[in-house]
Amino acid sequence: MTEPVLIRADASDHRVARYAAAAIVLSIAEAAIPTPLPGVKPGLANIIVLLVLLRHGWSEAAWVALLRVFAASLLLGQLFAPGFFLSLTGTLTTLALLAAAVHLPRRWFGPVSLSVLAAFAHIGGQMLLARVWLVPHEGLWGLWPVFSATATLFGTINGLITAKLLQDQRQ
Amino acid sequence: MHLRQWLLLLRPGDYAVVLAAIAATLAAGLSLWGPDLPTTAVIRAAGQTVASLPLDRPGVFDVKGPLGTTHIEVQPGRARVASDPGPRQYCVKQGWLTRSGAAAICAPNEVSLQLQGRREAYDSMSY
């Protein structure tokens, strides 16, 4: 008889689980807010992703972000629906961009920069998928200014909240 | 928490990124939703396009028709039929064309002048 394989969760696993739970709660809460256009929403879960990125590094942030996409979609009954793929694509482009942006000099670029860049990467990835797959028409770009404004506004606000949370932790 | 305390959380590069995002949003809004400025003047004779003049520099163009020569004049952002041999001079009296899609048609001499922007306002027009 072979020994049963025991998988022990280490501190990092527990951290990822805790942060992912917080991100999922924010996603679910946010889903209750009425929105005029799919894609125009605060993206509060990104606060958690940024927090994890700046505290514990990119790979834990990627775990939290992807767990959040899958679990929130599952809970909202959206798993493998178009909205799920938009969300997943947005998250993947964001993570790709953050992997590079996290190397920006911290003295000059704080959480707000990362948050705004991440918001634009998110909406950019979603728009590309929507253009290629869901609405294959050039007219879709007519919505871009709305998404760009949303990314600017909520990217800045989420970045400020992230900066505040990091500051509170340091004190 | 006061506004000043929030602003203290911003680093120099953050201001640049936020300002760039605002500028990009405004630029996108203007170019996608703003007025469509004409970029070229298309000149047709007997239904065939004979010239496409860019509207960023002045120029003149003469077109021969059944009645004689129609003179077209282009200035930055606008164009007109300067003179035409037709009897009623409708296309000359229209004066300067400035809007995308605007057209001056000298029917007797079979010459037309139309301004084009980046977008086509109509699929086709018939007169």
What's this model, at a glance?
The complex is a heterodimer of chains A (171) and B (127). Chain A has helices at 11-31, 45-56, 58-76, 82-101, 111-134, 144-170. In chain A, α1 crosses α3 (58-76), α2 crosses α5 (111-134) and α5 (111-134) packs antiparallel against α6 (144-170).
Q: Could you describe the 3D structure shown?
A:
The complex is a heterodimer of chains A (171) and B (127). By secondary structure, chain A is mainly alpha-helical. Chain A has one domain: Arp2/3 complex 21 kDa subunit ARPC3 (Orthogonal Bundle). In chain A, 72% of the residues lie in helices and 0% in strands. Chain A has 6 helices and no strands. In chain A, helix 2 runs antiparallel to helix 3, helix 2 packs across helix 5 and helix 2 packs across helix 6. The longest helix of chain A is centred in the C-terminal third of the chain and has 27 residues. The termini of chain A are far apart. Chain B has 127 residues and is α+β, with helices and mostly antiparallel strands. Chain B folds into 2 domains: 31 residues; 77 residues, mini-chromosome maintenance (MCM) complex, domain 2 (Sandwich), CATH 2.60.320. In chain B, 25% of the residues lie in helices and 33% in strands. Chain B has 3 helices and 7 strands, in the order H-H-E-E-E-E-E-H-E-E. In chain B, a hairpin with a 2-residue loop joins strand 1 and strand 2. The longest helix of chain B has 22 residues. Chain B is rod-shaped, with a radius of gyration of 23 Å. The mean pLDDT of chain B is 89. At the A-B interface, helix 5 and helix 6 of A face helix 2 of B.
Features:
heterodimer, A: 171 residues, mainly alpha, Arp2/3 complex 21 kDa subunit ARPC3, 6 helices, 72% helix, globular, B: 127 residues, alpha+beta, mini-chromosome maintenance (MCM) complex, domain 2, 2 domains, four-stranded antiparallel sheet, three-stranded antiparallel sheet, rod-shaped
